[in-house]
């Protein structure tokens, strides 16, 4: 069986308990020949990523064909895109999200921030390697060319996260002094938020909030106001939120429910990692379960796949 990196243990999608690759490949082949989309969706959404990759490997061995290529002949539109996303390794999918966020007109800053803020230094190093392998491009160079100024400085610091030991009180004082300056300076924020371990940063943020009397995100909103600082302000706020409570951050990111691509990105990325915790945060924040919200928002095959990845009603 093909092994992939395990990025978490509180995911909604778990390995299928009675996994029989040869039999399931036979079922997939029959479904492909009959263009039985419902069977394809049922099998591929009810298996873990490593099991799907095993099916692809077994399919190639038995039929001498690429399973993803065959799926393209039967599926189309958003359904095709989503199923093919599920056939990737987690690293390939995140690399694809980064690439799509930067290609074409405009840059999807929020997707870049989501991935770079939530992933560890080791995960980002692996992602950068996969990005180069898949696209023959350098991730750091692409981030540099697609962004500018302080926002570029922030993204590159996130890509190269470090952990430098420091005193909490000194870091709190450093950020307080910066907030008292009339001219905003992102450098101390980068120093503290990207060069310390998460527990240290959470302690700094707690002390800073107590010192200032309001949430750190509100301080950032006020201090880094103005049109030209929009990306920097957004970047710092996302970084703070993702450190304070990553599950609540993800729940709030998908809460508007207006963007199926955003929902798809979060569900595919986190269904085997920590989606159970995101579901809890979503219900606590909105008063309604993620499962029911998906039912009310999306229709057709996309709805069924989203529900399969979400898994259950809370």
Total E-strand runs: 0
Roughly how much helix do the residues carry, as a percent range? over 70%
Which CATH C-level class of the largest domain is it?
Mainly Alpha
Identify the quaternary structure here.
single chain
Q: Tally the helices: what do you get?
A: 20
Q: Mean pLDDT, rounded to whole units?
A: 93
Gap between N and C termini: 33 Å
Secondary structure class reads mainly alpha
Question: What is the C-alpha radius of gyration, as a whole number of Å?
Answer: 21 Å
The domain count comes to: 4
Low-confidence stretches: 1-8
Shape: elongated
Question: Explain this structure to me?
Answer:
Helix 19 (290-297) packs antiparallel against helix 20 (300-310). With 314 residues, this protein is mainly alpha-helical. The chain starts with 20 loop residues before the first helix and ends with a helix. It has helices spanning 21-34, 37-45, 49-63, 67-74, 77-86, 90-102, 109-118, 121-135, 139-146, 149-159, 168-180, 187-193, 198-212, 216-223, 230-244, 246-254, 260-270, 275-286, 290-297, 300-310. The radius of gyration is 21 Å and the shape is elongated. It is built from 20 helices and no strands. It folds into 4 domains: 21-86, Orthogonal Bundle (Annexin V, domain 1); 90-159, Annexin V, domain 1; 168-244, Annexin V, domain 1 (Orthogonal Bundle); 247-310, Annexin (Annexin V, domain 1, Orthogonal Bundle), CATH 1.10.220.
């Amino acid at each position: 069986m093909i092994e992939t990196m395990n990025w978490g243990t509180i995911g909604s999608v778990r390995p299928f308990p009675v996994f029989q690759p040869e039999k399931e490949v036979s079922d997939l082949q029959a479904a492909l020949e009959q263009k039985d989309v419902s069977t394809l969706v049922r099998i591929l959404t009810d298996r873990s990523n490593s099991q799907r990759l095993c099916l692809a490997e077994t399919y190639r061995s038995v039929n001498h064909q690429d399973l993803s290529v065959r799926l393209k002949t039967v599926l189309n539109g958003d359904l095709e895109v989503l199923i093919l996303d599920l056939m990737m390794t987690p690293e390939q999918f995140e690399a694809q999200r980064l690439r799509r966020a930067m290609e074409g007109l405009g840059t999807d800053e929020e997707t870049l921030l989501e991935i770079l803020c939530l992933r560890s230094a080791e995960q980002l190093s692996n992602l950068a390697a996969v990005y180069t392998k898949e696209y023959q491009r350098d991730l750091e160079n692409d981030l540099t060319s697609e962004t500018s100024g302080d926002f570029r400085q922030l993204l590159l610091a996130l890509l190269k996260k470090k952990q430098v030991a420091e005193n909490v009180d000194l870091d709190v004082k450093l950020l307080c002094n910066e907030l008292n300056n009339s001219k905003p300076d992102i450098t101390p924020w980068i120093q503290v938020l990207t060069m310390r371990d998460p527990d240290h940063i959470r302690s700094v943020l707690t002390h800073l909030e107590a010192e200032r009397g309001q949430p750190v995100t509100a301080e950032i909103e006020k201090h880094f106001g103005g049109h030209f600082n929009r990306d920097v302000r957004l970047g710092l706020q996302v970084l703070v939120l993702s450190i304070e409570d990553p599950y609540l951050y993800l729940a709030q990111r998908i809460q508007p429910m207006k963007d199926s691509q955003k929902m798809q990105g979060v569900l595919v990325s986190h269904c085997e990692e920590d989606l159970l915790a995101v579901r809890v945060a979503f219900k606590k924040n909105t008063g309604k379960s993620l499962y029911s919200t998906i039912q009310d928002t999306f229709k057709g095959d996309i709805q069924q796949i989203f529900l399969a990845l979400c898994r259950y009603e809370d």
